[in-house]
Amino acid sequence: MSSHNAGETYSSTSLFYGLVEGTASASGGVSGFVRLKWETSVDGVLKFSGNGGWTLTRKPGDTFFGEWVAFSIKLTDGTLNKIRIIAEDQIGNSISKEFFVFADGTAPYLTLDAPYSVAAAYWTQSASVVVSGTATDNVAVKEIRWANVTTGLNGLATGTTTWSQSIALDPGPNVVNLTSVDLALNTRLSTISIGRDNASPVISIATPTATGRFISTTTAPVDLTGTASDADSGLEKIIWSNAATGGSGTGSGLGTWSISGIPVVQGTNAITVTAVDRVGLVQTAVINYIVDLVSPTVTAASFAINGGAVSVGNNPAPYTISATDAETKITHICLRYNNTLEPPANDGCWTVIGTPAQNLTHTSTFLIGTAPGLYNVYAWFKDEAGRRSGLTNSGAGTAGRDLESVQYNPGNPPSVLGVLASNTDAPSDPPTEAQRAIGAGGTVYIKWRVTDVEGLSANPISLQFTTNENTWTDIANNQNNNSGAGCVADNAGTTADNGFTGCYKWTAPAVPGTYFKVRVTAKDSHGLTSSVAIAPLNAGKFTTIAGNTDTGINGSASSAILFHNVPSSLFPDGSSMAVTNSGIIYIRDLNRGILVVKPSDGLLKVLVKKDTTLGSNNGDGGPVSSATVRYPIAIALDENENVLIMDYGRIRRINVNVTPNTIETIIGGGANTADTVADPRQVSISLAPTDGGTGSPLYSSIKMPFIALPNGDIIFTDRDSFYGATPAGAHRVRYYDKGTGEVTTIRPSGIGTKNNGVQDISLCGIYAFGFRFDLSSSELTSLYFSCTSTDIFRANPQTYASEGPHPNVVGYDLSYPAHVRTFQNNSIYAFGKLAGVARRLNADGTWTNILGTGAEGGDCPDGTLATACPVQLLDFYVAKNGKIYFMEMGRIRMFDEAGKIVTVVGQGNDYGDGGKAISARLGSTDFLGQWLNAGTPTIDFLDYQSKKIREFPIGGNISKMAGNGGGAGPANNAVAATSGMVIHSAGAFWTSLSVNYNNGEIYSSPNGSSIAKLNRATGQWNYVVGGGATNYYDPLGNGMVGTNISMPGYPPSLVGFAPTTNKVLMYKHLWTGALHYNTYYKMFDTSAAFTMSHLAGSNANDSNGSHQDLWCAVGTALSGCSVPFTHGRFVLNSYDSFSGRWAIADYGSNTIYALPPGGNLALLKTLPRAMYNFAYRHDAGNDVLYYCATNGKLYKYNITTSTENELVVNLPNYICVGRAMTYNPTRNSVIFLYKQNGLNGIGEYASP
Fold it and tell me: What architecture (CATH level 2) is domain 109-196?
């Protein structure tokens, strides 16, 4: 045998023994090999036998040689087998070999006793586990091997037939292999799962609330439901306990569980629900189930209006009141006057308390009724359970507790209707340049006309002067409203002081030098004040003929003027105010910075001034009194009612809760434009400047979201492209997390809007954004975006993807004239200037009108129901307590508790009609004209903010000629003074006016589509051009009367009047929605039924309908001369009566062309600098141009000598402005528009 040694013992784990090999040989060829066989026996007893195989070969010398093999020899298991190999030849000769094999073919068995005895998962909290058991084998167990597949550790257990091992565990499931091994190396594998559980379960309560706090008004047992989970070992049970009752029990279910009938008692029931997992780890969820059975109690002697004063003049009036509630927080207060009926829970009088509390001292303001009289003001509180305090004293109220009686004497501010200062007691009307010249130590006669409806205070007049418009020095205080020593208030020797009520003779100090201005301040019996500054003295040839440019700072807010950032009649002025719960009003003023009005004194003050020459971080880190803002775009309040300012490239915060107030940058000022920025001061904010004098605000600065949530997080936008038709991928809202400082991005996505279920949100143009949030946690709960200007969608607050239900559309165009805003009381409103209405988004997705009639503008008096009041909405604000404020045309107004309108700040930018023109307020004025009224030069001007035309004779009183503030165009023959006007003042077109120098007729387009004249005999608008069938650009229209002409497209602009020919000049062009074309100048003969004639314009150069923005070549016949469309520039002109030609220029250019009717285009002059407006004076001795340059200065250019000199105006904070200027031949003066202190005036420069 070659494979085994005879007599030796071998082992096998198989009962079929493997290969046995060997050789055999024999001499001679007689017998040969016949067969090979094998036998197995145990203890001499034959057990099995079988045949082998062999191979025979013949060797040289007739020797036979064979190789044999035997395999699969069957063995008896568990014992020693003797194997005998036998070779036999053909005649029966045999030979054998023997060896022994011990057979063991059975693997040992393993039994697990610990940690468990069945094949199931086991979990423990321990870092290791002892595994133990037993093992058996038919022969013997050699060893127990273990391996933790999860950790990679392995080894041998202690013991064999009884064994154990401590195995280290990783957190989570661990796969452990156990292998038993016998002496024959037979193995048997057992795999078990052992888990290490260190994670507690998760549990949440779903009903009756998921917020952890629920208020009930009954002690009925409560049912709870919720969910629980355990990621590792699994849940074992849900148990509960109520600390208030000591009760406890077990819930039903595990993953989704419920508990029924938990007993509760009055007060706070802290019910704890506990999830227990299989290793004993627990997690709890607590609901404070409050059973409120009591109402709030108003604290005795705590209610005081205006500090307990018996009389109130300010409205709204400040008040303080205290209350307590034993069980829940007090959330609402209702004040009503002259009404003891308890308000229903849903009454509109309930206002939200900013910081609810169980022990509450509440300070706020209350809008008393609009009429003077005694008001009994009653107070009710409402708590979280909806329980309301009833009036004490059997429902009659108790004084100082829930009743406060106050006499309301609202009082109008004094009217300062005329002011005058000169060096004589009987000056000319108006005073001459010589009479306005005051030398050092010279005498100044100061006069005024002051009245007050309710009566002036004793000694009501105060006088101050300034040399710089910033610092005012007292002249005299506590003066009587009558003639003083050495002067006569109404001097018979002059008409300049007719009707004046008081005067003061003053010896000027040496300080004034070359320039100073005097201010008259009047105070009435209610403490209200009004101030008017007199036309400047020592200003040389310049004088003011209309417009009070006194800022009103530190005077009564009710008599102040606010200046809005509205570069166009289309635009609102969003995010320009913010109001605290206590009624403190913050105002973003275009020119003066951030203003503040406190109910405690009712004065308008500067919180932080504006200076565009300094950086937007000037003063950061220090007192606000030393700081400035650069371009304040928007303001808001943070969670502590500090003031937030979006100032050009950064968000700054004024801390008004420290003394002195301080300012700092909290976001912005960096260059990082990424969607996520860790350091908020590295964020890039690229919003454009918004200064109406130097630039126009983009949509983002008018409509941008800017709000602080209750937890201090801030939502804002950081780029100009936030709004508009640009696809939504370019739009983003930024989210500042106060806790982490990180700034992240909200960008809408997904599919579907209210009107289009398959709309791709990435292709939307976003014009509006609002959101809902949880008042307790500040977590966003819904996002709302517009898709285009007329569709809307709701987005998921976590993914920002569109998802229903979508709210209804607002009902009007949401493009740039409109806003959608979220306020700090979690309300959403939409409001639009052109829409003339504010609407509230309800919980069911519908909108409710709460302000306005849907018609823009109108003179809406105080006391009008808000929904019956036509308004020009510039801004809209809802305080945290739910009080509603809005801004329109120089005023801030609010709703009283009856839903009626009351003005709280401002006298309006059209104040002063009936008084002296120099004492009146002027709104945004760009156009003026003049005429001779019985020899008296008279000025008419258009105010596109108030939508009115006003008029005054130089030196006289101002009056309204047309417009009621509304935006609806008048019908033919409508009374001009009581009708609205369609006023446009945006990019492509402007509503303008021309005045007939000979008879005073005013020409304009009050309906936006035709030309009308204001008939002075009737006071009516008569339409004289438009409504016909022949287009204005059709050559066949030349020679037709005006009513036969059609005026399609943009409104006609009336740009000049020719006194010698009685023709009014019109500029007009068309717009297809993409192209400008058919640009023409046409003249209309006012003395011949407004017959049309051609001045210039041709469509010969229109290219595919788009007119070239160029003049034709100089020398071209005007009959075929193309003229540029003046998109955003308007037309400047002056008529040259001496040469019978028009002088025309584009706004902002420096080139003036001469257009003689029927002649050729000529170049009149190219000026050294660009201009806003000009006037042309051409006569036998003069050929000069007067113009207001774009640097804000006034110049005279002599065409004959080609020389220029500045017409110096000695006014601080002055620039010339506007789009019209006129030369007055009667007075030899230039009359022009200007701004001082950011306020509008009309000035005259004598003998230029």
Answer: Sandwich (2.60)
